[in-house]
Amino acid sequence: MSFSYFIYSTNYDQSLLKIGVLNKKMKKYDFI
User: Fold this and answer.
1) In this structure, how many other beta carbons lie within 10 angstroms of the beta carbon of residue 23?
2) Where do the H-state alpha helices sit in the chain?
3) How far is CA 19 from CA 2, 3, 5, 8, 32, in A?
4) What is the DSSP letter of 4?
5) Which domain holds residue 22?
6) Is the dihedral of CA 19, 22, 23, 29 positive or negative?
7) How confident is the model at residue 27 (pLDDT cuts 50, 70, 90)?
8) How many domains does the chain have?
9) pTM higher than 0.85, yes or no?
10) CA separation for the pair 30, 15 (Å, rounded)
């Protein structure tokens, strides 16, 4: 359970990092 949650949380964090990079490249979009 904790291992699958760890994988889920790391994938979630990576997606947030990708959104952050996209937010820097496209400043006209605001990601909440």
Assistant:
1) 13
2) 2-25
3) 25, 24, 21, 16, 10
4) H
5) 1-31
6) negative
7) low
8) 1
9) no
10) 15
